[in-house]
Automatic annotation (TrEMBL):
Catalyzed reaction equations: a quaternary ammonium(out) + ATP + H2O = a quaternary ammonium(in) + ADP + phosphate + H(+)
Catalytic activity, EC: 7.6.2.9
Keyword terms, alphabetized: ATP-binding, Nucleotide-binding, Transport
Domain annotation ABC transporter: ranges: 7-237
GO molecular function: ABC-type quaternary ammonium compound transporting activity; ATP binding; ATP hydrolysis activity
Name of the featured protein: Carnitine transport ATP-binding protein OpuCA
Class of the enzyme per the UniProt entry, highest EC level: translocase
Quaternary structure annotation from Swiss-Prot or TrEMBL: The complex is composed of two ATP-binding proteins (OpuCA), two transmembrane proteins (OpuCB and OpuCD) and a solute-binding protein (OpuCC).
An annotated GO cellular component: ATP-binding cassette (ABC) transporter complex
Gene source species: Salibacterium salarium
Amino acid sequence: MSEQPILQLKKIEKSFGETAVLRNITLDVQEGELVTFIGPSGSGKTTLLRVVGGFHQQTGGTVLLGGQTIDVLPPEKRSTGMVFQNYALFPHMTVYENVEYGLKIQTVGKVERNQRIKEALQQVQLDGYENRKPSELSGGQQQRVAIARCLVLKPKVLLLDEPLSNLDANLRVVMRDEIRRLKEELNLTIVFVTHDQEEALSISDRILVLKDGIVQQLETPSIVYQRPANEFVAKFVGHAN
Ligand code: ADP
């Protein structure tokens, strides 16, 4: 592909104290692409996502968004929307207020806020739920609010950290399809973390397989599945059956 990638990770290293957790990770993500990080627990998936989102500072390498380095920017200035595993909604606020929060911080005016909140809630199919509190929503609906809260800020990249892990099996499949639909409709660029191989194979354009903070393979689902780069990938992906 000749287009400039929207997101570039160049030789990312991360250590906590003496412990190296990410080693020499290089990745280009194209606009509109969904790339998934998979690997066993402790392989560095969440740490890598957090480096992109600005919640961890890497110890080496650089992150570029739209061709510009974002290394020194705090999370809220990065144009990377992060959906956390537990959704991190404000329990005392309504759906509307949760989605409004980031816009208020950006001092977006009331009329525009209202318009953008409506649009974001429509995108996640939650119009009519404006006045509910998170506790009055199902897990899937809470997740939709968490996604709307990011979308309303028009991020360049959406970062999803095991977003389906708290949902029951049926809802996982529904929300998986929903994330694909949003990606296609809005041409979203998404980086997705999961430890579930089957989920990764079904949702991704490309998969980055991690083991001990080292990239084992970066390929399309069908290539990872049919031509695993090594025995580790073969075994890990093979668990899907
Ligand atoms: P995964 O998401 O693949 O389960 P993580 O990125 O959460 O893996 O963790 C990778 C490694 O980094 C683990 O060994 C974990 O213990 C370590 N780690 C993660 N966060 C911290 C931290 N804040 N301080 C020290 N070690 C950490």
